[in-house]
Design goal:
The structure is a single chain. By secondary structure, this protein is α+β, with helices and mostly antiparallel strands. It has two domains: 127 residues, PH-domain like; 137 residues, Nucleoside Triphosphate Pyrophosphohydrolase (Alpha-Beta Complex). Helices cover 17% and strands 37% of the residues. The protein has five helices and 14 strands. The strands form four sheets. Strands 1-2-3-4 form a four-stranded antiparallel β-sheet, covered by helices on one side. A four-stranded mixed β-sheet has the order 11-8-13-12, sandwiched between helices. The longest helix is centred in the middle third of the chain and has 17 residues. The N and C termini lie far apart (59 Å). 23% of the residues are buried.
Amino acid sequence: MDTLGKLIGSYMTENIPLMTSIAIRLGLAQHRLARYYVQELRVHEGGIYLISRHGEKKNKMYRWKDIRRVWFERFETAKDEKGEFSFRIDIIAPNLDVIFSMTQNGCTPETEDYQLMSKIYELWHKETWHHYHVVAAIIHVVKPGEKNIVSKDTRFLCTQKDQTRHHYTSFHWEFPGGKVEQGETEEDALVRELKEEMNYEVTIDRHFITVNHDYPDFALTLSCYLCTGKDEKFTRREHRDHRWLTPEEMKGLEWCDADNAVIELLNQL
């Protein structure tokens, strides 16, 4: 299809119906299955074009932005002395149809099908993947006359997210903060976010850790700063709950994945 730009490559299927369940992978209660037969998959720089054996009216075109998710996994076996591996790819439409699914064993990096499917994931990821730069405050209270010392017994502010669009962050715990806007420094963003979300003023002491983490639907750079507050009084505007906990007590909560590295480092204080 000329509307999708330059042709990258094509894959001829064995005319089998694409009937594969991915509800667990997506964390969804229900899903739909593609029930038409695909004869050929054409990969273009702008998307993919599926050729059906049932005629041109059944052909379907998907631009990268119209594809909800591309799962691409490579499996290597330690016992395989030849260095071969297996891979699987699932291409999911916005309505949760599995529009293409493929598993292949005995591959090498030079295998044509593996190279083509890798290119699909690369092009989709480049077009649709979102990256967020976020700052978070690891806050403890230092009352007048006290020394600003953090240890394994220090209690820090932990906040619980409300329901989000992603099941893997809904109702999970995190340290308060938010996105860094264009032109902002991390410190300026942190002060602004705490004021907007909590009406809470803190003193930023020092940078603690930066975590890079890939979630199923986006990538995150999380920069955390140790901060001190004068008291525990603030207005909770966006979070569901909050607690003041020691690093050891934090282990009992269900945290967002990116925050787990922060918890681990706090437990080394």
